[in-house]
TrEMBL record:
It comes from Acer yangbiense. This is Methyltransferase-like protein 23. One of its GO terms (molecular function) is methyltransferase activity. One of its GO terms (cellular component) is cytoplasm. The keyword Methyltransferase applies.
Length: 247
């Protein structure tokens, strides 16, 4: 025998909250291609405008994704890990270009990880989705050997910088010759980033103004002082890593 329960004030509040959450969802489309009428491909992203960080496409993601497209020969067939992927636009572009991509975000942010899976399905891409908390040495991180590590706007909380650099260094050591490509706002923490690179024995081999390579139609909708950096192990650290592998 089934029980019928009338709708209470609490139920109405829950329904209204659900409708509110749903109304904040949107799907944005991001085109990539050379100057022609038809893009080479598009990536659709599910965004939640109610979320402050993980479920919104920030300018750094747009710029990094465009860089991935413009550097597409480097990404074909490469192993790629995106850190703090959120809506995962750069990683999904890499996957579309033929990279073997693992999308990661904080293991505790289950709603973000679930959204990443939905976005992969929406774009018919078979990228792996994995919880990875910076500075936490779970077993799966040691199985990751990416040629390229991506990170868009991962330098926003200075208290997490050390954990981020520790994670990046671990991944770089797992795969000799690999590179970390990141876009970030040139905020007051820029000198801290430089200091921590030295501390973790990393070096920047390329530094670009994020708008210097962005097509005008994309640049017009963005703002901020955004830089793109390619970071690798320092020469000394790379030699030590290679020697330990040989032994």
């Amino acid at each position: 025998m089934s029980e019928f329960r009338g709708k209470t004030d609490s139920d109405s509040d829950e329904d209204d909250a659900g409708k509110s959450d749903t109304s904040m969802l949107t799907i944005s489309r991001h085109d990539f291609g050379d100057e022609s009428d038809e893009p080479s491909f598009s990536i659709s992203i599910i965004e939640n405008m109610k979320d402050d960080y993980g479920l919104f496409v920030w300018p750094c993601s747009v710029i990094l994704a465009e860089y991935v497209w413009q550097q597409r020969n480097r990404f074909s067939g490469a192993g790629v890990v995106e850190l703090g992927a959120g809506t995962s636009l750069p990683g999904l572009v890499a996957a579309k270009l033929g990279s073997d991509v693992t999308l990661t975000d904080d293991s505790n942010r289950l709603e973000v990880l679930e959204n990443m899976k939905r976005v992969c399905e929406l774009n018919k891409l078979k990228s792996k989705v994995m919880g990875l908390t910076w500075g936490v040495w779970d077993a799966p991180i040691f199985d990751l050997c990416p040629k390229i590590i991506l990170g868009a706007d991962v330098f926003y909380d200075a208290s997490a910088f050390d954990d981020l650099f520790a994670t990046v260094k671990c991944l770089l050591e797992n795969s000799p010759g690999s590179v970390f490509i990141t876009t970030y706002h040139n905020r007051s923490g820029h000198h801290l980033i430089e200091f921590l690179m030295v501390k973790w024995r990393l070096k920047c081999v390329k530094l670009l103004d994020g708008f210097s390579f962005l097509p005008p139609d994309k640049a017009s909708g963005l703002s901020g002082n955004i830089q793109l950096a390619e970071i690798v192990l320092s020469c000394e650290q790379a030699e030590e890593t290679s020697s330990s592998i040989v032994r």
